[in-house]
Amino acid sequence: MTTTVHGYPRIGPNRELKRASEAYWAGRVPASELDAVAARLRRGVWETLRDAGVAEIPSNTFSCYDHMLDTAVLFDLVPERFRTPDFAGDDREAELRRYFAMARGSDDIAPLEMTKWFDTNYHYLVPELSPDQRPRLAASTKPLSEFAQAKGLGIVTRPVLVGPLTFLMLAKPAADAPQGWRPLELLDDLLGRYAELLELLAAAGARQVQLDEPILATDDGRAELVALERAYGRLGELTNRPEILVSTYFGSIGTEALEVLKRTPVERIGLDLVAGPESVDEIAAISGLGDTTLVAGVVDGRNVWRADLPKALSTLGSLLGLARGIVVGTSCSLLHVPIDLDAETELDPVIRERLAFARQKLDEVVLLGRALSAGDEGIAAELERARASAPDSGAFVNRRVRARLDALGDDVARNGHDQRGAARTDDPPLQTTTIGSFPQTADVRKARADHRAGRIDDAEYTRRMRAEIDRVLALQEDIGLDVLVHGEPERNDMVQYFAERLDGFVTTQKGWVQSYGSRCVRPPILYGDVSRPEPMTVEWITYAQSRTSKPVKGMLTGPVTMLAWSFVRDDQPLGDTARQVALALRDEVSDLERAGIRHIQVDEAALRELLPLRADYHADYLAWAIGSFRLATSGVADTTRIHTHMCYSEFGRIVGAIEQLDADVTSVEAARSHMELVDDLAVAGYKRGIGPGVYDIHSPRVPTADEIEAALRDALRAVDPGRLWVNPDCGLKTRGYAEVEPALRNMVEAARRVRADL
Ligand code: GLN
Ligand code: ZN
Predict the structure, then answer these.
(1) Which atom of ligand 1 is nearest to the CA of 555?
(2) pLDDT tens digits, residue range 169-179?
(3) What spans are recorded as compositionally biased (Basic and acidic residues) (predicted)?
(4) How far is the CA of 644 from the centre of ligand 1 (A)?
(5) pTM for the full model?
(6) Strand, coil or helix: 695
(7) Does residue 158 carry a pLDDT above 80?
(8) Model confidence at 510, in pLDDT bands (50, 70, 90)?
(9) Residue-averaged pLDDT of the chain
(10) Annotated binding residue at 500?
């Protein structure tokens, strides 16, 4: 019996990768320094895994930015615009200059697009492919050099590669590719290069290689059975190659794909038994995996809870005999969880007892491996400890919350939109507003840090925040916006702010997880029943409203987004947890209304991103997602405007869901796909207020009044003026005033011009 993990966090226990890459980008350190940090981080991971007793250790799970980008570079699938003399030369500086230009753009070259890695909060760079591209192995092959580095340390690793199907299916056709051409058409060519690479790895001494194919957990991936058979049939046939592990995760892959893989000569299949527990039945349904070894992902790589060891053991037990062998593993790479629970010194011991971060998960994998080979006796003590702290101890139950939710039931909707219409026939045309946050200046950050560290007291902190709110309000009045915001200076992050104020959540000190490149986030942990001890935003918003005669919009984060950007308890359905968060928000919404706030925005930035990978699960998800939003927002009078905001642009797929949220106004990220949104809305017969973001806040560019005017006129084709709102496409927090101020002035000017013509 043996043990492994699919991958391990790359950022370093103290975010060393972030610091080193940012220093390199700023020109403060040379490439050699970044490379030295990277080499140390890799070594640290391999030694950690080895010392924990993990038998089979992966390599090439490190990346200076992103593993999809690494794969594109590995096969020289680099778009033309990065092939200029600027990036020429074989030296490491030139190589890195091009690599980071692809990731982050340069003065005049747009980077690759970035998007979410399946349904995780990790983001990858989208390769751009076209039919005339010829993949070839790059001169410096990262998987080989990292394998050699580990081997030099006496650790023979299993190099990890993004599999050919996943790589091609996550890529997009380059702008110049013919209509209808799919990157998957490069498969045969690319397989030739994978074959070369596998042979080189074998020659270097690799006994195994891991090809990651999470795409098989999606509907699209499951449909590509012919390509799957071709890919692994062909790689399997190679004579001088390492053993192949085809590793899948984020869901089950279905019996058809299992059968195909079973037929091919690959030696091992990795399955995610946490996100896809039905895999066990699927294996049984095809009478086992025959000659293939199963890497059984029983330890959750996506969440922070300690494994239910007895349950994991019984799952493993039920698989014995259904494969040639069983390897105990994590459900997916540990990239998605914080590194080490031992770094947390302030967690309540009762909560801590239930947690396992990446480092602790290694122990669980090793323990399960031992139990499987030596029998339960090997781990009797640990099993006993696990039973003693089983999550149903009831310690985190809030009976009041549960009783209130039961009493409320599902029927919480306020008057339907049509009836509410009577309360607001006088909505002015093209009202201007913003999404909530204003630039977080150094002063604002410093005030928060000083307060947190106790360097300034509550009174001084309040004074500074109020001064900032006054400043932001004065600016908005001067610019001439219609519905104002307080600017969110008191919020470090739209989820963490609320998590810190709700019971049932804890936040960590060092629980960083990579979001993309050097950006890391620290998701809160939702461990128990959620409730609101006291109002969370009312003081700030009512202060703001007291300083202006214009309406001030209250700002809250919605239940789905609270869940999407946290680690969430897994002992009850997500929908039940969402309802608890929604109830707390419902109280906050009522308090805001009672305090005289007439516009309340409940952000559901993550509504689209939590949509399950497989269509079979969409209806169920949307039902609870929509239900929780309505629970949060339906306690108000017809005259109070409920707004929502979503960071997502392809609305075609969820226009219906937006309608059902029943917000009075929905603002969306549409700056980059304006026409599409307007068309989607027209087709769907959408009749509520809509604020299609009129410019892209993700870029420092200041939009002109002319282009915003054109966008608004365009939107008026599908939306009548009283329902059209004018706003940027997301919060302004990450921008500077030098861009924000002129951009908002142009936006207000554009709205004026269009209104004048109505
Ligand atoms: N109200 C939030 C803000 O403006 C919304 C951010 C988001 O959508 N990601 O910052
Ligand atoms: Zn947004």
Answers:
(1) 1
(2) 999 999 999 99
(3) 412-427
(4) 10
(5) 0.94
(6) coil
(7) yes
(8) very high
(9) 93
(10) no
Is 437 annotated in a binding site? The answer is yes
What residue ranges line ligand 1, CB within 6 angstroms?
A: 435-437, 488, 494, 555, 603, 605, 645, 647, 730-731, 733
Least distant ligand from the CA of 558: 1
Is 196 annotated as contributing to ligand binding? no
3-state secondary structure labels for all residues of 603-672: ECCCCCCCCCCCHHHHHHHHHHHHHHHHHHHCCCCCCCEEEEEECCCCHHHHHHHHHHHCCCEEEECCCC
Are the C-beta atoms of residues 429 and 758 closer than 8 Å to each other?
yes
Determine whether the annotation assigns residue 630 to a binding site.
no
| In the chain, ranges of CATH 3.20.20.210 domains | 2-9+156-174+181-389, 430-757
**Distance from residue 669's CA to the centre of ligand 2 (Å):** 6
CB-based neighbours (< 5 A) of ligand 2, an ion: 605, 647, 730
SS3 119: coil
- Residue 676 or 573, more confident: 573
- Tell me: pLDDT of 412 over 80: no
5: left (phi > 0), else alpha (psi -120 to 50), else beta?
A: beta
Residues 583, 588, 594: CA angle, nearest 5 degrees: 125
In the CATH hierarchy, which fold is given to the domain comprising 430-757?
Answer: TIM Barrel (3.20.20)
Binned at pLDDT 50, 70 and 90, residue 258 comes out as very high
CB 169 within 8 A of CB 65: no
Q: Rounded to the nearest whole angstrom, what is the distance from the C-alpha of residue 646 to the centroid of ligand 2?
A: 5
Q: Bridge-partner residues for 349, per DSSP? A: none
Residue whose Cα lies nearest atom 10 of ligand 1: it is 731
**Which residue carries 């017809």 as its tokens?**
638
Buried b (16+ CB within 10 A) or exposed e, 617-634: eeeebbebbbbbbbbbbb
Supply the residue whose CA is at minimum distance from atom 6 of ligand 1: 731
Give the tens place of pLDDT for each residue, 599-626.
999 999 999 889 999 999 999 999 999 9
Q: Which CATH entry fits the domain spanning 2-9+156-174+181-389: 1.10.760.10, 3.20.20.210, 2.30.30.240, 1.10.3720.10?
A: 3.20.20.210
Question: Ligand 1 test: best mutation among 437, 484, 732, most atoms within 8 Å of CB?
Answer: 437
Summarize the confidence of residues 78-106 as an average pLDDT. 91
pLDDT confidence tier of residue 377, bands split at 50, 70 and 90:
low
* 661-683 pLDDT tens trace: 999 999 988 765 666 777 777 77
What is the CA(436)–ligand 2 centre distance, in A?
Answer: 9
Q: Kindly give the number of the ligand 1 atom that is closest to the alpha carbon of 434.
A: 4
| 436 CA: nearest ligand 1 atom | 4
Please indicate whether residue 486 is annotated as part of the active site. Answer: no
Q: Check the annotation: does 627 bind a ligand.
A: no
Amino acid at 544: A
pLDDT digits (tens, 9 = 90+) for 335-364: 999 999 999 999 999 999 999 999 999 999
